[in-house]
Amino acid sequence: MKRTKYLSLPIIIAAMVLGTIGLVSASAPVLPSSFYGEIEINDNPPSAGDNVNAYISGVSGIAASAAIKSESSDLVYSLNVPGDDPETTADKEGGVPGDIVTFKIGSRVVATGSWSEGSNEKLDFHPPEALPGGPYSGEVNSAISLNGAADDEGGDAETYEWDLDNDGEYDDASGQNPSHTWTSTGVKTIGLKVTDEQGGEGTASTTVTVNAIAAQITLDAATLSQTYDGSAKVVTATTNPSGLSYSITYDGAGTAPANAGSYAVVATITAVNYSGSDSGTLVIAKASSTTTVTGGTFTYDGNPHAASVSVTGAGGLNLAPDAIYSCGSAPVDVADTPCTASYSYAGDTNHTGSSDSDTITITPAAATIALSGLTHTYDGTAKSATVTTTPGGLSHSVTYDGSSTPPANAGSYAVVASITNPNYSGEDANGTLVINRAEPDIVISNTSQVYDGSAKTVTVMVTPALSYAVTYDGSTSAPTDAGIYDVVVTVDTSNYYSVKNGTLTITKAEPAITITDLEQVYDGNPKPVSVTVTPSLSYNVTYNGSATVPSAPGSYTVVVTVDTANYYGTKTETLVILARHSVALVNGWNLVSFAVEPESTDIEEVLESIDGHFDLVYAWDASGAHSGAGNWMKYVPGAGYGNTLTTLDDKTGFWIHMTAADTLEVTGALPVSTDISILIGAGGWNLVGYPSNDSGALPAILSSLGTDYSLVYAYHPSDSSDPWKLYDRDGAAYANDLAALDPGWGYWIKASAAHTWSVPY
């Protein structure tokens, strides 16, 4: 129960102003209900340090707990059990007047008390020790008396309650000395709980052995003596009282035996709540057996003819053993018979023995003999006819023209075959053996040869080595000239004959062809190559498939062909007619380029034609890699070091300072199209060549640069009054005096973005 007092808001505010109260509950704390005392427990006593726990109905978990102490060798405790907090309205926290406090040590109730606010009660713990008596014994379905007792330090043992079905509940009997009747046998566990006046409890258990009722069982004598018939032999018994269920074992097994023999029999009552047994010996006697041997007369078939033997008897005895033969084993041949077959059965575990015998006779079988394989080809070995008998594999004799020796040479021979196997009879077989002449192995080789002016024969190998004849297109003379000839090789002896056809091919010889003068310089005249043929033979020459000798610069596929009656050959080379670009240079500075791809870009080789007439060459590095030298690359002829310009090609425009007027002659291949890199690494300025054969009008020739260039300069030193020529893409037309790009000149181009400029030749 909760107790709460409420103050009105004006009172609370006034109290706060006066400083007399804060915002707290008006009720004082509830005092605990205290307990203390000694602990006297004989069975499973606690130890100092173990806990005493208090429980109150409605309070979740343990209401209070205190450790057991040792005081002057006694165990004591002291415990404050709190009261319920009146200021809360939720769960119950402690006791209220009238609540029962249950005290436990571990799971055992050792006492109970009444909760009282502000009290301190001495409550000694002395729960009784339960003494259930026993062990007990008795018969099933008969009352068995129980004798309970208690050892109680407080002398106040009050109630006795029994658990007789071992379910943990003490609700099956009450009182100190009850009796109980069990309806099943076995060892039963029972329990006793004793409670004293303080509510302290003690429990203990014991056993009750419930025995079955003694009964009588007797084995039936008639079932203890039986004869084997293959079925299980069951022994029966009689019980007193009658009709009780029972089990029987045979040599300890629960399955009745079927085989002959002696078996220890034990009968045991299995009816619920009854016991009893009897024992004896079951004897199963052996059954008789019958042996039957059956022989007979057989026609020879190459197989053993065995007698049949059967041994039968009760219980499914049905054997088919092998007979014993006077001729050693089941007879096969006519000569083995007559033969006596017999068998003696010794008996087995379940049967007595028996025996029997009979006779076997085998008569000859009819057979046939036939000849085959009468046609052979001579190979130097003896040739036999193939003999087939029915049935197969019979022994037989064969003669050839009356002789038992097979012939080897080619010819015809009379053959007679007869059966000699004593187990068969049949008429002789007659025929003719024919040995044909053999076909030797003829190999024709060396059938492909090359003309050299001498007669060409094939190589012939005959196996075995025999004489032979060879013809070439029907002639015995070997051919000399190139061509294809039918070859016939013939072998014809007493034992061999064969004709082998082949072809001899004499191919044309390949002459040695040498082509020279394959690199020439354009001068407007035809440029034929020089040809040497060994041996000296006529030949044809074509240039790119034409017989016309070229004169224009370029590359030409040259094919020289020799084709005569006995010679054939071709040789292919490439004729290169180099172009020559002549650039006129004036004394002083010239800004030029050339429009051929030189065979070598080495600057000394490129400028070789004007050697001694110039003293300085400059080219421009538009990438900026030579920024330390102002982006200039320099070549001074004869300088031992310091030259940074080592090569010149058709993409490059260059300044050259002439000490005397001269003409620069550059020889090389004509380009088809040339890609020139336009860079912006040196302020956007590029010094380029113009490798083309035609004039390129501005601005069309630079259309691939788009709008990414602004100025183009050329330098014409022959115009002494105004050598610089300008094209300004954004300038006025009248101010531009450079209208086109022409081969032979170098050009400055100012670009604002990198491009690849493709210049068509």
Model description:
The chain is mainly β. It has eight domains: 25-122, Immunoglobulin-like, CATH 2.60.40; 132-193 and 201-211, Immunoglobulin-like (Sandwich), CATH 2.60.40.10; 214-285, Immunoglobulin-like, CATH 2.60.40; 289-363, Immunoglobulin-like (Sandwich); 366-436, Immunoglobulin-like (Sandwich); 441-507, Immunoglobulin-like (Sandwich), CATH 2.60.40; 512-576; 586-760, no CATH class. Helices cover 2% and strands 47% of the residues. It has two helices and 66 strands. The strands form 21 sheets. Strands 48, 50, 51, 52, 54 and 58 form a six-stranded mixed sheet that branches. The longest helix has 10 residues, at 9-18. It starts with 8 loop residues before the first helix and ends with a strand.
Number of separate strands:
66
The number of distinct helices, counting runs of at least 4 residues, comes to 2
Class derived from helix and strand content: mainly beta
The oligomeric status of these chains comes to: single chain
Arithmetic mean pLDDT: 92
Q: How many domains is the backbone divided into? A: 8
What amount of the residues lies in strands?
A: over 45%
In one word, what is the shape? Answer: flat
Summarize the main sheet. 6 strands, mixed
